């Protein structure tokens, strides 16, 4: 297929399981591209035949290493310093994406991590800079359910019903190229989902639970059904539930090809904690860790063939 072939209007998906049977969905098809409000049309570019003229081991030196952006970054006092830092970060983001893109060979990026870890925020930045399309798997399940929210799907049907549909959405996405996918926080618990996500590159956004609880408390827990049963103030109940979920899932997130630890980024930048890390700084680290993963894959291939 021609790499420029854009299939946005012709891509139809079988409805994820169950919605037809219960009459929630009338036409039986989910049109991802047209219903993703604010997201670019879905482009499916077949780049299987593409071969980069450079290999990872031959790659040109990166003009600006990530550490450059982290230099002297402690709590800038002046607005102009902040602006300069974000201009620096944008420049580094762009440079890093140009460096990594040829080696992606169109593979999708799946962001995994706890609810509130920034998969959507960071995923949109990465998709933009790589020229990929962005999808949020929770949103796709909601669309398949005729606009029913995740919270309502849990309430009206069940968690396992939601999980079945989440798996079906991931299966369909796994057939595509050049996507950044923000997965649901619990997508990692089903082994079959890893089979789908491993068609691309999986990245774990590892955020300390206190930071997650702060973010979630700031926007409320209404849209997060797994937090509904806790009592207490929003921060405390989010923290309690997140701790349990994290214990249950710790191992599962660690299946990802690459791990982006916010604590690690904060330490590199000389920040005391992760609170002031910008989504762009996190997006840069995602690309750095993807590059490390691709490099290690290539090293293994060379070792196997020698
Ligand atoms: N680096 C950051 N610093 C501070 N707040 C952030 C950062 N990244 C994301 N947020 C905020 O945290 C909240 C959750 O972010 P986001 O929706 O991107 O997470 P998510 O992993 O996609 O969540 P979910 O799995 O629940 O959909 C949002 O309110 C967002 O604005
Ligand atoms: O952590 C989880 O299990 C969930 C996270 C959200 O993204 C949604 O997928 C849903 O609320 C379940």
UniProtKB/TrEMBL annotation:
It catalyses: shikimate + ATP = 3-phosphoshikimate + ADP + H(+). InterPro entries: P-loop_NTPase (IPR027417), Shikimate/glucono_kinase (IPR031322), Shikimate_kinase/TSH1 (IPR000623), Shikimate_kinase_CS (IPR023000). Its EC number is 2.7.1.71. PROSITE patterns: SHIKIMATE_KINASE (PS01128). Pfam families: SKI. One of its GO terms (molecular function) is shikimate kinase activity. It is found in: Plastid, Chloroplast. It comes from the Eukaryota. GO terms for cellular component: chloroplast; cytosol. Pathway: Metabolic intermediate biosynthesis; chorismate biosynthesis; chorismate from D-erythrose 4-phosphate and phosphoenolpyruvate: step 5/7. Keywords: Amino-acid biosynthesis, Aromatic amino acid biosynthesis, ATP-binding, Chloroplast, Kinase, Magnesium, Metal-binding, Nucleotide-binding, Plastid, Transferase, Transit peptide. Its cofactor is Mg(2+). Transmembrane segments: none annotated. Catalyzes the specific phosphorylation of the 3-hydroxyl group of shikimic acid using ATP as a cosubstrate. Belongs to the shikimate kinase family. This is shikimate kinase. It comes from Macleaya cordata.
């Amino acid at each position: 297929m021609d790499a420029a072939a854009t299939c946005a209007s012709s891509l139809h998906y079988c409805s994820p399981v169950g919605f037809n049977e219960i009459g929630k969905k009338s036409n039986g098809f989910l049109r991802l591209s047209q219903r993703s409000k604010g997201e670019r049309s879905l482009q499916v570019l077949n780049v299987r035949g593409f071969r980069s003229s450079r290999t990872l081991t031959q790659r040109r030196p990166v003009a600006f290493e990530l550490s450059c952006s982290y230099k002297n970054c402690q709590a800038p006092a002046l607005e102009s310093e902040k602006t300069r830092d974000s201009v620096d970060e944008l420049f580094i983001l762009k440079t890093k994406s140009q460096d990594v893109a040829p080696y992606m060979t169109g593979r999708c990026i799946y962001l995994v991590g706890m609810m509130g870890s920034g998969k959507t925020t960071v995923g949109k930045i990465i998709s933009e800079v790589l020229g990929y399309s962005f999808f949020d798997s929770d949103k796709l399940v909601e669309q398949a359910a005729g606009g029913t929210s995740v919270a309502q799907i849990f309430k009206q049907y069940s968690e396992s019903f939601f999980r079945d549909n989440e798996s079906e959405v991931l299966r369909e996405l796994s057939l595509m190229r050049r996507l950044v996918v923000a997965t649901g926080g619990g997508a990692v618990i089903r082994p079959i989902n890893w089979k789908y996500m491993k068609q691309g590159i999986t990245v774990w956004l590892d955020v300390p639970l206190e930071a997650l609880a702060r973010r979630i408390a700031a926007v409320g827990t209404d849209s997060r059904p797994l937090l509904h049963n806790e009592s207490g103030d929003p921060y405390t109940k989010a923290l309690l539930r997140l701790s349990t979920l994290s214990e249950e899932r710790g191992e599962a997130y660690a299946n990802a090809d690459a791990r982006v630890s916010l604590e690690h980024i904060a330490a590199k930048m000389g920040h005391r904690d992760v609170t002031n890390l910008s989504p762009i700084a996190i997006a840069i680290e995602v690309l750095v860790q993807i590059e490390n993963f691709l490099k290690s894959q290539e090293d293994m291939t060379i070792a196997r063939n020698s």
